[in-house]
Amino acid sequence: MAGEVLKVSVKWGKQSYDVEIDTSLPASAFKAQLMSLTGVPVERQKVMVKGGMLKDDAEWAKTGVKQGSRLMMMGTADKVVEAPKEEMVFLEDLPPEQAAHSAVKKYGMGLTNLGNTCYMNSCLQCLYSAKGLRAALASYEPAGGGLDHQLTSHLKGLFRQIEGASAPVQPMAFLSTLRQSFPQFAEMQQGMPMQHDAEECWSVVVNTLTGKLKGDAASIDALLGVGLKTELVSEETGESIVTEKLEHKLICNITSEVNHLHEGIRLGLKDDRQQTSAKTGAMTTFRGSSRITRLPQYLTVQELRFFFKAEAQQKAKILRKVALSVSLDLHEFCTPELQAELAAPRDAYKAVLDARVAQKKGAKGDEGAKGEGAGEGHDAKRAKGDEGAAGSGMDVDGDKGDKGDKGDGAGPSKSWESHVGKMTGRFDLTAVLTHKGRSADSGHYVAWVKQDDGTWVEFDDDNMILRKDEDIVNLSGGGDWHMAYMLLYTAQTVPAE
User: Fold this and answer.
1) Which side of the chain, N or C, has fewer Cβ within a 10 Å radius?
2) CA pair distance 394, 397, nearest whole angstrom
3) How confident is the model at residue 95, as a pLDDT?
């Protein structure tokens, strides 16, 4: 039965739940699922199976549980949620704070803080925003055992829970496996779970998924992989070394001269190092610089906000303000070969915008065209701004050289149809993981996620707050407010029309 997934029904009181049992995982993982569904702590659960109550270390093959089995659970939840007794109140009649709370529910549910787990919750909410990753996990088929498999399976199950949740989700099973896989996350301090660096959690999750998610389109390398070509040159010996590698994020270094995200990325692509010279056998300084050879579907950027402070024995924080890029253009950081590949899709994307403008003008007639001209001028102005920014990434839709429409929209369409779905080298901000506090291993982590309709939602564990674009811009740093630490972007591609 090892590795088999059983779909069973669990009756608890008057309620019944459809649950999937991964038989490659221990029964304790199944009980953790039940806890997240019912609120009944594992130690209070009594699940009846063949031979008596289900034990945490039970072997599934000996329990008599099979496909379609109906199980019964007894136990009391920590908190019984009672049905509302108030009369029906319409949204428009609610106080502003309650109305906002009701409005945000349509964007899903948050994750319960299980004891200093905001670092994990914020990571998971950001990763959940990547639809391609969700799809890859949904199609994940258990293969073999081990903790890597368990972590991947629990993440798959957790994402499925979030998708259909009507109340905050308790990520108990995932947290339990995370702590088994990486014991540092199980460390305690004064009887309480310790706070941890969210980037460390993000990295171990991504690295685990790298070994488990396979397939040309479903692999982590395909979804998050950034190809880098690094050239190392020694002025002293005249040596030149070229290496290529695949990373899952770009680094934004922060110094006193870095004011914008793209400046920090440019600095992060420099790779000066000391290494042994093949010519002299002595340590030599090599000046290194990297260029991007491959773009991901989802781009992760880490702002290096923390450094180890020896006298305090902790990761201290760099508070400097670094302006965020709502739309990030990586064209300038690509190799000449990749820039050449991007040229046609970038032109095609511009052609689509031109055709849309022309179509609106044609539909509105002469009077509408007069009004639309102002809108077209805005597009042109925005495009010129993109030329000036050249990599600052603050453009939204425009492209270099936008100069208005070039026809009625029928002709140009043929020029972009062959490029539909191809990357332009630009990325749109999808999620921001922020930190508030002075040390990576303390303070508080929060996720800010952009929804399909353009609305931003702040996920402060299980507390959800509607946010505006200006709230995201204010995450740039420079004080004690939430500031960006991990950024997740989605690739801009040529639309069909």
Assistant:
1) C
2) 10
3) 57
Q: 3-state secondary structure string, 444-479?
A: EEEEEEECCCCCEEEEECCEEEEECHHHHHHHHCCC
Q: Is the pLDDT of residue 168 over 80?
A: yes
At 328, which helix (H) or strand (E)? Answer: strand 327-329
Task: Tell me which of 118, 126, 201, 334 is the catalytic residue.
Answer: 118
Is residue 393 a contact partner of residue 262, using CB atoms and an 8 Å limit?
yes
Contact 229, 269 (CB under 8 A): no
Q: What is the pTM of this model?
A: 0.74
Would residue 154 show up in a list of annotated catalytic residues for this protein?
Answer: no
In tens, the pLDDT along 61-118 reads: 889 999 999 999 999 886 544 444 445 444 455 555 555 556 788 898 999 999 999 9
Question: Under 8 Å CB-to-CB from 311, ≥6 apart: which residues?
Answer: none
CB 171 within 8 A of CB 111: yes
Per-residue pLDDT reduced to its tens digit, 230-240: 999 998 888 99
Do 130 and 298 form a contact (C-beta atoms < 8 A)? yes
- Fold (topology level) of 1-79: Ubiquitin-like (UB roll) (3.10.20)
CB atoms near residue 102 (< 10 Å): 11
* 386 three-class SS: helix
Active-site residue (options: 252, 419, 444, 482): 444
HEC assignment per residue over 310-326: CCCCEEEECCCCCECCC
Q: Would residue 149 show up in a list of annotated catalytic residues for this protein?
A: no
CA distance 131 to 297: 10
Cα–Cα distance measured from residue 408 to residue 355, given in angstroms and rounded to the nearest whole number: 7
CA-CA distances (angstroms) from residue 139 to 26, 215, 491? 22, 10, 22
Tokens of 290: 């990297």
Of the candidates 182, 175, 176, the one whose C-alpha atom is nearest the C-alpha of residue 207 is: 182
Q: Are strands 5-12 and 70-74 parallel, antiparallel or unpaired?
A: parallel
Which amino acid appears at position 281 of this protein? G
Greatest alpha-carbon pair distance for the chain in Å reads: 85
Among the listed residues 471, 495, 494, the one whose alpha carbon sits nearest the alpha carbon of residue 483? 471
- Residue whose C-alpha is closest to residue 127's, from 487, 423, 434: 487
Domain boundaries along the sequence of the chain: 1-79
Alpha helices (H) along 39-129: 96-104, 118-128
> For 337, what's the count of Cα atoms within 13 Å in the CB-facing half-sphere?
8
What does the buried/exposed string (b/e) look like for 381-399 if buried means 16 or more CB atoms within 10 Å of the residue's CB? ebbeebeebebbbbbebbb
Both tokens assigned to 405: 């429409």
